[in-house]
Design goal:
single chain; about 500 residues; alpha/beta; 6-stranded mixed sheet; 5-stranded antiparallel sheet; 19 helices; globular
């Protein structure tokens, strides 16, 4: 999988251009690489050998990709939590890995994920795609401000390490690590940003927006710093992207922003590109085309991915990945809802809808594009609220909060619930965080409720058809910025409660 490229020759990442490395990968057979990784893991990873034996599988009987795709899936309960950590590592040696991260535990007990340098270099290619292809960071002095939480949590340290690898490769990037402390972020920006041609903020979408809004209130003039944004961890709407870009003075969302599809277990699995963002903006403007391709009313995250680094399959509408890591992943069930679209397939689909050059959606063909396959991601299957039989997605609600006249009141964070009242009836309750200094009142709540209802009816056909008319308007509760019960600072926000 990745080890032939970086395990024995880590300087390949430093010495070879992004163009050469991606061309080399695209010339390889991803299926053959996945099969090769399986054969290595079956021979060298004690836990995986035991796992196969428990399922009555002889590794030497798995000779083709057809055999491979019939192997049992691995996941956290059946594999990661069933075998000791060292036995899940190459050679049964945890000490062979020189760094470790921990998952957030949003689906259960936190899990440790070790890795070695060459695994990180493979992921650094995703950052290089963003920083070179979109931000042109090879030609501009860049201050990268890491706003993810630091410590053992995967986001901050992993991001920082990958950026350091780019700097070592020769990119004029200086990395600052204030973490998710706004006061430190503002101090870094105030002292250092004037010395650089551009600045990149990297963090979770709602937190980055909080930084932008709070920074503006504190007197930071974002449009003076050529700000770029890198997000991870959540799906957001194109209205939200446009809003945030407007607040930093950006007129080029495709080239000033990028979202990463990353997990603690698999690293960065894919990344937005200028092409994928332009395509997503086309789908946002054409919901019927989005429903035709993605099969749902909500708009997913759309990334491109390196099939040699991460080999994807689908299982009942959810993603399965194979890829090298300190704990190698073999047909690992991530449980994220999504799907796969080939590069040529996507281009053909767009041509059928008369979307050829995508210039009106912000894409510049002169800058080029990578012929990498696409992955679309809705997030975990359980991040929905069921209401009168309709699955209501946070992404649908978000659009309602990003309308003119509302965006200046709210932070973008909310909690969606459908509690059962004393009479047995359910109500759709939406608790919304206000921006600092904004006071709650009935008029604001009513306008938000009407906007969210309008967007739910437009975007979610289940809601429109299943929910009685009298029950379609949500009960909106407005809470102050940083409310400790619903919007505590310093933790990853969850948009639904059950």
């Amino acid at each position: 999988m990745t080890s032939p490229l970086f395990a024995d020759q880590p300087t390949r990442f430093l010495d070879r251009s992004l163009e050469d490395l991606l061309a080399e990968r695209l010339a390889c057979d991803p299926g053959a690489a996945a099969l090769s990784l399986f054969q290595r893991a079956a021979a060298e990873v004690p836990a995986y050998r035991t796992f196969l034996a428990a399922h009555g599988i002889r590794p030497d009987s798995v000779r083709t990709l057809v055999d491979f795709v019939h192997l049992p899936l691995t996941d956290k309960p059946s594999y990661m939590q069933a075998y000791p950590l060292p036995e899940r590592c190459w050679g049964g040696r945890l000490a062979a890995c020189d760094r470790i991260a921990v998952s957030s535990g949003s689906t259960g007990k936190p899990t440790f994920w070790p890795r070695a340098l060459h695994h990180e270099l493979d992921i650094a290619l995703r950052f290089e795609q963003v920083f070179r292809d979109a931000f042109q960071a090879h030609a501009r002095s860049t201050l990268a401000v890491v706003c993810f939480a630091l410590g053992n949590w995967v986001g901050g340290i992993y991001t920082t390490s990958c950026l350091w690898h780019l700097a070592r490769k020769g990119y004029p990037i200086t990395v600052a690590t204030p973490g998710n402390r706004p006061d430190e972020i503002f101090r870094v920006i105030g002292e250092l940003a004037p010395y650089f041609e551009q600045m990149v903020l990297l963090g979770y979408p709602p937190f980055v927006k909080d930084v932008i809004d709070s920074g503006a209130a504190a007197g930071i003039l974002w449009d003076r710093h050529a700000v770029k944004l890198v997000f991870a961890g959540e799906v957001f709407s194109e209205e939200w992207r446009s809003l945030v870009c407007a607040r930093i003075g950006s007129e080029s969302p495709c080239y000033d922003t990028a979202s990463l599809y990353g997990t603690a277990d698999g690293g960065v699995l894919g990344n937005e590109t200028p092409l994928s963002i332009a395509i997503r903006r086309f789908f946002a403007a054409h919901p019927q085309a989005a429903r035709e391709l993605f099969g749902e009313s909500r708009l997913p995250t759309l990334v491109q991915y390196d099939p040699l680094s991460r080999y994807f399959e689908l299982h009942d509408g959810t993603l399965v990945v194979t890829g090298d890591n300190g704990v190698p992943l073999i047909r690992y069930h991530i449980a994220d809802r999504g799907g796969l679209v080939g590069y040529a397939e996507m281009r053909d689909f767009l041509r059928d809808w008369d979307a050829h050059d995508l210039a009106e959606y912000g894409f510049d063909p002169a800058w080029g594009e990578r012929p990498l396959p696409f992955l679309y991601l809705f997030g975990r299957a359980d991040f929905t609220v069921s209401y009168y039989g309709a699955n209501i997605y946070p992404e649908n609600v978000t659009v309602g909060l990003e309308q003119p006249g509302i965006v200046n009141w709210v932070s973008g964070k909310f909690v969606l619930e459908a509690p059962e009242g004393a009479g047995g009836d359910r109500e759709l309750r939406l608790t919304v965080e206000l921006l600092p200094g904004v006071e709650a009142d009935e008029a604001k709540a009513a306008k938000i409720a009407d906007s969210v209802r309008t967007e739910l009816l437009r975007l979610n056909s289940e809601f429109a058809h299943y929910t009685p008319h009298a029950r379609q308007t949500p009960l909106v509760v407005l809470r102050p910025f940083g409310d400790p019960e619903y919007f505590p600072a310093g933790v990853k926000h969850r948009y639904t409660r059950r």
